[in-house]
Amino acid sequence: MNKVYMDYAASTPVDREVLDEMLPFFDKYYGNASSTHSFGVDAFNAVEEARESVGKIIGAKNDEIIFTAGGTESDNIAIKGIAFKNRDKKHSKGYNIITSSIEHPAVLETCKYLDNIGYKAKFLPVDKYGIINLDELEKSISKDTFLITIMFANNEIGTIEPIQEIGKIAKKHNVLFHTDAVQAIGKVPININNLNIDLLSISSHKIYGPKGVGALYIRNGIKLETIAHGGGHEKGIRSSTYNTPGIVGLGKACQLGLKRMDNDVLNMTKLRDILIKKNLEIEESYLNGHPKQRLANNAHFRFTAIEGESLNMLLNDAGIAAATGSACSSKKLQASHVLTGIGLTPELAHGSLRLSLGRKSTKEEVEYVCETIPGIVKKLREMSPLWNR
Amino acid sequence: MNDMYTEKVLDHFRNPRNMGKMENPDGVGKVGNPQCGDVMAIYIKVKNEKIFDIKFQTFGCTAAIASSSIATELVKGKTLNEALKLTRTDVARELGGLPAIKMHCSLLATDALKAAIEDYRKKKKGG
């Protein structure tokens, strides 16, 4: 068996069709899309075509999409942009921003920052599956609240949040709703109008596009304060010369993502369910995240008495690329906030493993992974003083 | 991810020496905290003030497992006083270095060893 990549939630390979679409924009159509000569117009047209493709994957209009350098930047522009526009609500009694405690750091740290500089942020707890409490969300809203930001699907445990219900609550109370949909795009059908989403973050490299490019959907009529001043690109919200090849790549990736979503989801769900079934046959192994309301490509486990970094290292030795929420693999030596957020003790969080599938994942790969994991778990348990069975 | 560790670390991680539980040890040292993701147990058998046999069990990362493995190798056959002189720096150096963020793992290994020797001495005194 060659190397098996099961970390698609971290990043995906650039699709060949995406790459082919991008290449001419490096050396043939290299003009600055803001220039008015023919070189610039060629680039401009390509950027606008990509804008349409990105809009389509979420049911948005072209002029509601701005391009960014990735999901993290999209989140920052959205949350800070709305907060700075509402700076008169700082130092208020009620919460200004409501988010969850298991957000991606791009959202979590941004909200913490705003909370530190005088805004008031509420970090909603989640249940054992990682789902936010809708009653508590609604109760946290006051006249001071201007933004709800809750992820579409969690990047670690794959839980899909009740986005439709959140959208309804946001609309009812006239609060803006932003969602980080980086993990959900291409895996869950999304229509921003049906879901009452006002702002939505997209990343290219999670959907077989290039790294370093993303997009932010902003519903027409919503005003954001600029956080990166400059030449006034993207309606003045995000200045920077157009990354034409990257934008073209993201556009193509969205186009393909929409076309292939049904097939991808069908294939990945089948494989994911095999992963879950087989790995739960291992003694004292558990599934993290929701059993049903989860991304088609995410299987997340924990194994008693073993530590994730070691597990991941032995998997890597066996040619398998996976991820863990273990503290020892993080730079901060702290257990994942998502895993502690769903109520796991740090001890349990250490033994976690994320396997995430992609478009090219095969049954053979899944079978190989399922055959390999039990032996590694056994080996590490023999080594573990916490395993006394 | 292998670039983070030296070949020696990876060798001890993949092929740990003296790994496993010991029946009727003369001394046991267990240190660390499962909350932090590191628990190390070292078991020793002592004859004529020398470490005659040694075993370890570790719940922890690659560096923690490799540190405990090499520590057992370094003190096997040594006198208790010699073994007590083993420092975290020795452990890290013998492994060809550890990433800065993993240096505490080497300390855990020497702490476990010290605890095992203390346990043996306490039992000897008491018995």
Would you spell out the secondary-structure blueprint of this structure?
The complex is a heterodimer of chains A (389) and B (127).
Chain A lengths: L3 E2 L10 H7 L1 H4 L10 H19 L8 E4 L2 H15 L11 E4 L4 H12 L4 E4 L9 H7 L6 E3 L13 H10 L3 E5 L18 E5 L10 E5 L25 H36 L5 E3 L10 E6 L4 H10 L2 E2 L15 H5 L4 H5 L1 E5 L6 H21 L6
Parallel strand pairs in A: 1-11, 3-4, 3-5, 5-6, 6-7
Antiparallel strand pairs in A: 2-8, 7-8, 9-10, 10-12
Chain B lengths: L6 H8 L12 E7 L4 E10 L2 E10 L2 H14 L4 H5 L3 H7 L8 H24 L1
Antiparallel strand pairs in B: 1-2, 2-3
Helix pairs in contact in B: 1-2, 2-5, 4-5
Overview of the structural elements:
The complex is a heterodimer of chains A (about 400) and B (about 130). Chain A is of the alpha/beta class and about 400 residues long. Chain A folds into two domains: about 5-10 and about 260-385, Aspartate Aminotransferase, domain 1; about 15-255, 3-Layer(aba) Sandwich (Aspartate Aminotransferase, domain 2). Helices cover about 40% and strands about 10% of the residues of chain A. Chain A has helices at about 15-20, 25, 40-55, 70-85, 105-115, 135-140, 165-170, 245-280, 310-315, 335-340, 345-350, 365-385, and strands at about 5, 65-70, 95-100, 120-125, 145-150, 175-180, 200-205, 215-220, 285, 300-305, 320, 350-355. In chain A, the strands form three sheets. A seven-stranded mixed sheet of chain A has the order 2-8-7-6-5-3-4, sandwiched between helices. The two termini of chain A are about 30 Å apart. Chain B is of the alpha+beta class. Chain B has one domain (about 1-120): Sufe protein. Chain: A (Alpha-Beta Complex), CATH 3.90.1010. Chain B is built from five helices and three strands. Chain B has a three-stranded antiparallel sheet. The longest helix of chain B is centred in the C-terminal third of the chain and has 24 residues, at about 105-125. Chain B is globular and about 50 Å long. Chain B starts with 6 loop residues before the first helix and ends with a helix. The interface between A and B is medium-sized, with 27 and 26 residues.
